[in-house]
Amino acid sequence: xTLTATAPVPPARPPAAQAPAAPPRRxxxxxxxxxxxxxxxxxxxxxGLFPLLYxxxxxxxxxxxxxxxxxxxRGLDNYTALLRDDFFWTALRNTFTIGVVSTVPQLLMxxxxxxxxxxRLRGRTFFRVTMLLPYATSVAAATLVFxxxxxxxxxxxxxxxxxxxxxxxxxxxxxxxxxxxxxTIVTWRWTGYNALIYLAGMQSIPGELYEAAELDGASxxxxxxxxTLPGLRPTVLFTIVVSTIGATQLxxxxxxxxxxxxxxxxxxxxxxxxxxxEQGWGYFHLGRAAAIAWVTFVLIVLLVLLNTALARRxxxxxxxx
Length: 321
Fold this sequence. Notes:
mainly alpha; ABC_transporter_permease; MetI-like fold; transmembrane; 2 strands; 69% helix; cell membrane
């Protein structure tokens, strides 16, 4: 009789405690860019998007500055009241006129100055820094100085015109004269800023293009037309859009030129910004002022879309050629 011995089975070990799973690296890599840009969107929502939407909400009500808590539903009456107001159309026309008179010469002079600064000149760093001085100057200080220069009785501009045999001009009462004076302030402040933007765009154009054009016998003017301007097309579009937005929102220069929110005796240089300020803080109609703000916003969007469409059309024509 044979006995078979069976080895005892060792007791099962308790399962080892598993370490907590680390967050996957791929998920962190995907979420980290959103964490970096989250502060911007939070600030934009608080100080950009919310005021924009709340202004649209207020524009549908009758709200007075003295009693902002009392709101009376008006629907689109604030907008229809604007369309029946002659001063609104005057402000809209003045905004367009001052915008054109200040933007076109400003960008042309900025382009010419940038072209000169693009060459190797002595002290070009000094000239580049000087270009930013008008932009760094306070709007109030610059406007007050220009208001003295354009004075009717003792202004330096009328004195210079008198030397040329031209009689004194009332720069604050005349419609065309006052708009030219306000446009001059805007042009003086922003020409250097746009010149430096154009200069940065010119320096990004490859130098080989200029060398090839020079070998082909092209003069500096031909190089500017056929090399510089096509290379600056995106930069020019950017400055046009920014200048259009700035001209539509023009406020400080016409306000401080004479110190009146009405833009002169006959509203001859009152812009949309001044008109909105007059309705909201002059006549205390916050609902109507909010409607003006939204009309200005829609106008800016339409002008930007128009500029973009025209620029794309020109670029397509240039590509076909």
